[in-house]
Write a structure and sequence with these properties.
five-stranded antiparallel sheet, single chain, transcription regulation, nucleus, q64v53_bacfr protein fold, activator
């Protein structure tokens, strides 16, 4: 098995319902790129949103503060459970990937500059006898 992992951000067509046929097509696409269905896979993904801070504006009942354009509005955090000491952050708009220590989510929580909005946990066990 190759030591390289790919994270693909896939959006089904609007209005499409995820079913076994679509899953089989997505797997076939990944296999055509050299991917394989093998073993157990587990990961956690966290979507973070930037938190604008301007207490004077908020206290006065004004409009919410705007973020400077150089500050990403969102980032995606990925923890691969087969690499417990690492944490990856993805800035999609800037096409950057940051590799950090696994304590990164705790640092983000203490800084309070980004707030975790959604956490998704995935666990898949594939057996050679299964087919789609």
């Amino acid at each position: 098995m190759s030591p390289v992992k790919w994270l693909m951000h896939w959006h089904p067509n609007p209005g499409a319902t995820l079913n076994s046929q679509i899953l089989a097509e997505a797997c076939a696409c990944a296999e055509s790129l050299g991917g394989s269905k093998d073993g157990r896979w587990k990961t956690s993904i966290i979507f973070y949103r930037a938190m604008a801070r301007d207490s004077a504006s908020a206290a006065a009942g004004g409009a919410p503060p705007q973020l400077p354009p150089e500050i990403p509005r969102e980032l995606l955090g990925v923890a691969l459970h087969e690499r417990p000491g690492l944490y990856f952050s993805i800035l999609r708009a800037q096409r950057l990937v940051l590799q950090a220590d696994s304590a990164f989510p705790q640092v983000m929580e203490k800084l309070q500059s980004y707030k975790a909005r959604v956490t998704l946990n995935f666990e898949v066990t594939l057996h050679p006898s299964l087919s789609f």
